[in-house]
Design brief:
- The protein has helices spanning 23-38, 43-64, 66-75, 77-81, 88-91, 99-104, 106-109, 140-156, 182-185, 202-212, 221-234, 255-263, 377-383, 411-425; strands at residues 121-125, 135-139, 165-169, 175-177, 193-197, 216-220, 243-247, 266-273, 277-282, 289-291, 296-301, 313-320, 331-339, 351-356, 363-364, 370-371, 389-395, 398-403, 430-435, 450-452.
- By secondary structure, the chain is an alpha/beta fold.
- The strands form 4 sheets. The chain has a 12-stranded mixed beta sheet, sandwiched between helices. Strands 19-18-17-20 form a 4-stranded mixed beta sheet, with no helix packed on it. Strands 1-2 form a two-stranded antiparallel ribbon.
- It is globular, with a radius of gyration of 23 Å.
- The protein binds zinc ion.
- The site of zinc ion has 7 residues, from loops.
């Protein structure tokens, strides 16, 4: 049953439709009812409602959270005196919270007296791809909204709840369950769910995928890319996929086209992080993303703090409006994004055109230009049967290309690949090539297509 036509599970004898759901489902559907409406609000109305919720969060944080109480009294005394008078102008002067703050001052960011109706807290640990992992306290209310957005995502892309849902990801055992899990099962009956750890060898993943033949496959972008390439190489193609869902990593530029070409299905991406949950979901009509303005304030900022205009790339700064347990206000997540123009789908939710990696995923060249590297994905596929690859920039003029392939690249292939990159990177770098068994990454870390070891210091 497609999400749009699905009927919630009814708990009243004989009353199938319209359904009368149980209380947990009622709460979830009440949230969906509001989200369904607010997504169409004009940007101004969304901003106004955000500001009301932000004032409520700030008033609580200034009263309860030591970190903010001390900092804001010194830096924004007018807000410290009267939090309910907070404006967007004063919010723009609110200090940015860094990852290092989260690591070093976690205890000072936690509210010691959480209102009991926020439902207690649990601890999430970040992956620590740029150093030591940090931990964040998340309330049940914040968890609830994260689930509500996950269900919105399934509605937006009209998933068929009756199909089988497969997940290959970190932190799950090899297993099966009668339903898809907490979302959307709180309100709807679904087909079965199956899980496999992402550490499973590719060949075994593909065996499993072909045997299970799910309607949906959720995995990290890098694992999906490796799996699709392996599937293409071996000619073993899964059947019956209505969509492939990626999450948790920046989407490789060629993955959407690869999934379409090899598996003949659509790829749906979402951008989320451990700290604030779902930040942006792919628009139902386009490849770009809508910021989830109902629960998170998403800012895209230049290095000097000015907001980016459409088409400009800047640092992502997030404010989680729902998590009172450990309020993250103007938290710099470490990723970059390109601000977008309003979407023609009619949703007032702000647009992120692209979500990019971290600063160390940017390239430079001997002229001092710092830029986001573009891969010649189409040409690469035609030039050599490459598996995973990664570019490591050791010096402004020198890039090492690490690749996984059944054999060494020939001299001719190497020359052509260098030339293809010279085109998209707009500079003739000296390329060196290293064939590797696998692209190394630490457990829990995100896969990176491009790593710079020689970027100029951040301005
Ligand atoms: Zn849209």
């Amino acid at each position: 049953m497609r999400a749009g036509a699905a009927i919630p599970t009814s708990v009243v004898t004989g009353q199938v439709w319209p359904a009368l759901p149980h209380s947990a489902a009622q709460t979830m559907l009440a949230a969906q009812f509001q989200l369904e409406r607010s997504q169409w609000w004009p940007a101004e109305l969304l901003a106004q409602r955000q500001l009301e919720q932000l004032r409520s969060l700030v008033a609580f944080a200034l009263q309860q959270v030591p970190h903010y109480r001390k900092l804001i009294a010194a830096l924004l005394p007018e807000v410290a005196r009267e939090p309910r008078a907070l404006t967007w102008e004063s919010f723009a002067r609110w200090p940015i919270l860094k990852k290092s703050d989260l690591r070093d001052h976690a205890a000072a960011l936690v509210a010691p007296a959480l209102p009991p109706d926020h439902g207690g807290m649990s601890w999430n640990f970040t992956s620590g791809s740029t150093g030591t992992p940090a931990r964040c306290a998340v309330t049940m209310v914040a968890h609830f909204f994260r689930s509500a957005l996950a269900l919105r995502h399934q509605f937006w892309h009209d998933l068929d709840f009756s199909l089988k849902y497969a997940e290959i990801r970190p932190g799950v055992p090899a297993g099966r369950s009668p339903g898809w899990g907490a979302v959307p099962n709180v309100a709807y009956e679904t087909g079965p769910g199956v899980t496999l750890p992402v550490s499973t060898a590719l060949e075994a993943q593909l065996d499993w995928l072909l045997a299970e033949a799910p309607g949906y496959l959720l995995s990290t972008a890098s694992n999906l890319r490796a799996l699709v390439l392996h599937s293409r190489e071996t000619g073993r193609i899964p059947q019956g996929l209505d969509a492939v869902l990626s999450y948790a990593e920046n989407l490789p530029a060629d993955l959407r086209a690869l999934v379409q070409e090899v598996w003949h299905t659509r790829l749906i991406d979402a951008y989320s992080c451990t700290e604030t949950g779902i930040v942006a979901l792919q628009c139902p009509r386009h490849a770009h993303y809508h910021a989830q303005a109902e629960t998170v304030i998403v800012e895209v900022l230049h290095d000097d703090g000015r907001p980016c205009a459409a088409g400009e790339v800047g640092r992502l700064v997030l404010t989680d409006l729902t998590n009172f347990g450990m309020p993250l206000i103007r938290y710099e997540i470490g990723d970059y994004a390109e601000a977008g123009v309003p979407c023609d789908c009619g949703r007032g939710l702000p647009v992120l055109k692209r979500i990019l990696g971290r600063r160390r995923n940017m390239a430079t060249d001997p002229t001092g230009r710092v830029f986001w590297p573009v891969f010649p994905s189409r040409e690469l596929h035609d030039l050599a049967p490459l598996g995973q690859l990664q570019l490591v920039q050791h010096a402004p003029a020198a890039i090492e290309l690490r690749y996984v392939m059944a054999r060494e690249l020939s001299a001719q292939e190497s020359t052509r690949i260098s030339a293809a990159f010279a085109e998209t990177l707009r500079y003739h770098f000296e390329f060196s090539f290293s064939r590797v068994a696998t692209i190394e990454r630490q457990p829990g870390q995100k896969y990176e297509e491009f790593i710079s070891l020689c970027l100029p210091a951040e301005p």
